[in-house]
Amino acid sequence: LQFCETLLKNKPSFTNEVDSKGRCPLHLASAEGHTDVVKAHLLANQDVCLVFDKDDMIPLHFAVIRGRMGVIKELLNARPDSIRVLNDDGSVLHLCVLYNHLESLKLLLESVIVDSQLLFAKDREGNTILHLAIRLKQIKTIKYLLLQPEIRTAAITFEAVRALREILLALKLKKC
């Protein structure tokens, strides 16, 4: 940590340097869960929270994939808007579900104002976070998500629409 702080003090631009995969030091520190190193980089430059690597991932994605709670908190405190970054895998909420990090999901949903656009964002396969949790059979995550009023209402509405479609289809088949 002391080396990192000294390096950043003498060469603040180090926070912006990227490797061959487009990753800056904050990506790596976030993935490894080095909260103090993350703090040092954020003190030097908070904008590195939004640096995309070649896979369109930001440091928050790396922290979420590994369930690095302390790092997630620091990144959100520095740039709360980083939660809104989407890529082919969907949102950081999708990554929480995909990698089975319920506590990270709770932290994200409780730390910032989450709107329906983020709650119902879809990944490349068209899955919302609830669909993904159901597909992966993550019972605790499903229960938690259904406790969220917007998600519960949408789930009920979706089931009602599906039931109505089945009724209309049955009536149409009866006519024939």
From TrEMBL:
Q: Where are the ANK repeats?
A: 21-48
Tell me what topology the record assigns in the membrane.
Answer: Peripheral membrane protein
Check the record and name the InterPro entries matching this protein: Ankyrin_rpt, Ankyrin_rpt-contain_sf
State the source organism's domain of life. Eukaryota
Taken from the UniProt entry, a GO cellular component term is: plasma membrane
The subcellular location is: Cell membrane
For this protein, the record's SUPFAM superfamilies field holds: Ankyrin repeat
What is the predominant subcellular site recorded for this chain? membrane
Question: Does the record bear Aminoacyl-tRNA synthetase in its keywords?
Answer: no
Keyword check for Methyltransferase, yes or no: no
Query: Which UniProt key words apply to this protein?
Result: ANK repeat
The coiled-coil segments of this chain are: none
Segments traversing the membrane: none
What PANTHER family does the entry give? ANKYRIN REPEAT-CONTAINING PROTEIN BDA1-LIKE, HOMEOBOX PROTEIN WARIAI
> Can you name this protein?
Ankyrin repeat protein
What species does this protein belong to? Pisum sativum
